[in-house]
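Re: [ENG-882] Designed sequences occasionally contain unexpected residues at chain ends

Forwarding the minimal case from QA. Structure tokens:
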């Protein structure tokens, strides 16, 4: 167990014992302490998610609620809780399904100042979360509460209050036995939700009381919270605003993805480009997840951007390239200009599904063939060898181009294309993914598995579904010096090259969705693109099994 994990366990133990003593007023006996620690250890061992390892980003379109304390700003949204670190002035990892968030949306987020914890009213439960140690302390199903609709939650030192549909119920702290409140309410209730609502109409500098972007699209302000000079505003599909209410200066933050479905990821310095096919929304995302800087790009807003459906992304210092359902798109970073290349410019098909950059040339795989783009001439050249063949994947092997198609694998040497065959004929069923390792070539096939070729030993190996490959369909393969990762329709399979062992990770571990469409490996992390968002996995953490 890591030092971080040891500290985590000890903090949980100390916090829980202290809170139980204070709530229940039970004497501090050695027997009682031992008993509580025993219960904590059992609870921790049964924990489903590791909050230090899995992080998910997705669409966070609608901000329902905001609460502020000295250290952080918490925002309830679809899919979980967003967290802005006021001390470090950056966005911390959101709390989502990957961290055990109970439900689909956080309708109210409230900060209990007595015990320094969050209370969340989700669509499924009333839950208590300790942000200091990333621990869900309590999860009360909504169906077990006397109120079906909860519009407000409030706290005093002794009690918790719930309000909805004109009724108020209260429970003494620690008992969670709810009784209808009929008397006069205490004056010192700290309310959140409807009863603690901030009216944006009280702040004229926000006129006309909606946000708009450079394309004149309008976005509703959904909720607000104020702490001294700081105002935080949530919107419907346009992120979050942070204003100084005295100077009226403000910052706009992009806080999630334009589209949950992620089929392609490309890192550009400290930011990421993400795109996908038909998902819950549409658009291309460019974002720095820590600073909140970024932008959504949508075809209906931008001239030269002809499609929101993205299958592949690559880039260089000056441009970002996108394979889409309507051609090859180019974004010139310095000029912020988009241009689309189509069949009229020489593409064999407008459906571009794979891209790779080799020196100054962009190789383009489409549903009906292959082409290359020569930046010097700004022209597209069609490769007739692959006419009417779906070109699904590329790789670079010893400075030669590997091409994975629906009819097998080809190696480009100079101007010749050599067909590569495997012993079992799996390539004849089509190759969907290629990964070039230091000593091996990995091929994800359409025949329920992965074929690996070791050139130095002239040896082939085959790994099939369902063991050890977890899914029937292989979408992507990537890796580093220690591991190879295979993204499938049923989780991600990891191969430990030193131990020669396979292990599968899926939703039960913290992955947001089992259909892993694309992979991006960097340092200690792997990014997993799915149809429900992108999950970052800290796979080198010692708490992760080898």
């Amino acid at each position: 167990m890591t030092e971080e994990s040891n500290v985590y366990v000890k903090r949980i133990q100390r916090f829980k014992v202290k809170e139980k003593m204070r709530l229940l007023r039970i004497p501090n006996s050695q027997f009682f302490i031992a008993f509580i620690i025993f219960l904590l250890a059992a609870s921790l061992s049964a924990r489903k998610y590791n909050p230090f390892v899995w992080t998910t980003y997705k669409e966070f379109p609608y901000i329902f609620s905001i609460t502020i304390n000295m250290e952080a700003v918490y925002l309830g949204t679809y899919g979980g809780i967003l967290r802005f670190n006021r001390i470090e002035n950056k966005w911390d990892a959101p709390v989502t399904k990957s961290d055990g968030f109970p439900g689909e949306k956080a309708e109210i987020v409230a900060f209990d100042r007595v015990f320094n914890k969050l209370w969340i009213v989700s669509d499924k439960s009333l839950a208590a979360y300790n942000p200091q140690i990333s621990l869900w302390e309590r999860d009360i199903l909504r169906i077990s509460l006397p109120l079906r609709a909860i519009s407000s939650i409030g706290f005093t030192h002794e009690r918790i209050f719930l309000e909805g549909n004109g009724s108020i119920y209260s429970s003494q702290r620690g008992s969670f036995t709810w009784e209808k409140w009929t008397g006069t309410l205490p004056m010192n209730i700290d309310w959140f939700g409807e009863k603690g609502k901030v009216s944006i109409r009280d702040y004229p500098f926000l006129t006309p009381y909606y946000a708009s972007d450079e394309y004149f699209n309008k976005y509703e302000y959904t909720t607000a919270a104020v702490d001294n000079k700081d105002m935080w505003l949530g919107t419907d599909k346009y992120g979050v605003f942070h204003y100084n209410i005295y100077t009226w200066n403000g910052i706009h933050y992009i806080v999630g993805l334009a589209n949950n479905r992620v089929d392609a990821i490309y890192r550009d310095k400290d930011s990421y480009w993400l795109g996908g096919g038909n998902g819950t929304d549409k658009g291309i995302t460019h974002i720095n997840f820590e600073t909140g800087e970024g932008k959504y790009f949508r075809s209906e807003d931008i001239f030269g951007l002809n499609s929101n459906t993205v299958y592949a992304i690559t880039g260089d210092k000056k441009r970002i390239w996108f394979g889409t359902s309507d051609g090859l798109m180019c974004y010139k970073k310095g000029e912020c200009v988009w241009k689309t290349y189509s069949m009229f410019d020489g593409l064999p098909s407008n459906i571009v599904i794979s891209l790779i950059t080799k020196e100054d040339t962009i190789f383009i795989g489409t549903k009906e063939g292959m082409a290359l783009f020569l930046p010097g001439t700004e022209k597209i050249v069609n490769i007739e060898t692959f006419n009417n063949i779906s070109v699904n994947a590329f790789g670079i092997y010893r400075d030669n181009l590997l091409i994975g198609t629906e009819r097998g694998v080809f190696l480009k040497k100079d101007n010749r294309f050599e067909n590569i065959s495997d012993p079992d004929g799996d390539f004849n069923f089509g190759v969907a993914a290629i990964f070039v390792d230091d000593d091996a070539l990995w091929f994800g096939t359409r025949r329920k598995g992965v074929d690996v070729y070791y050139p130095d030993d002239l040896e082939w190996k085959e790994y099939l579904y369902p063991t050890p490959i977890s899914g029937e369909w292989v979408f992507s393969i990537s890796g580093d010096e220690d591991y190879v990762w295979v993204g499938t329709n049923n989780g991600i399979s990891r191969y430990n090259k030193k131990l020669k062992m396979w292990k599968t990770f899926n939703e039960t571990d913290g992955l947001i969705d089992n259909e892993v469409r694309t992979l991006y490996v960097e340092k200690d992390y792997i990014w997993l693109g799915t149809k429900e968002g992108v999950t970052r996995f800290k796979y080198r953490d010692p708490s992760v099994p080898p």
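QA comment: On inspection the terminal residues look reasonable. Residues 50-144+198-256 form one domain. Proposing we downgrade this to a documentation issue.
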